[in-house]
Amino acid sequence: MNIEIKHLCGCPEHLGTVARWIHEEWWSDKPGHTVETMASRLGEASDQNAVPLSLVALHAGNPVGTVNLVANDNEERPDLAPWLAALLVMPEHRGQGVGSDLVRALLKEAVRLRVRQLYLGTDIPEYYAKLGATMYDEVSDDYCIMVIKTGA
After folding, report:
1. Where are the domains of the chain?
2. CATH number of this structure's domain 4-149
3. Which one of 33, 111, 124, 133 is most buried, by most CB atoms within 10 A?
């Protein structure tokens, strides 16, 4: 599959779609969080040379996945920064390397920004281990924090 990865701020026509995806996947059950709130947060990733940063994977010009670099993705761990957050690939495009491509693209951006390591929270550590992440903190039986050193 031919995938192109771009900064979301460079293709704002996809902002609403990506905001809806992220909201529906992780935030729809949290009071006070709306698609508009998520769109506003994603809109903060307006400078390709700073955190926050948002990437979108496109296939034939249509968004199929996203990943973000954010200052913090865990209010209980303000000491850890920055974070790889909201990696999401649409179900019909999973298993084709889109997620891995998004993570690798985000890591390249992190190196460019001189970010030495990224944290991430996950319930699928095996997936991220294949991409170079190592265990940082096993928070519970079904959630852990991992770290990826970028080499920057």
Report:
1. 4-149
2. 3.40.630.30
3. 133
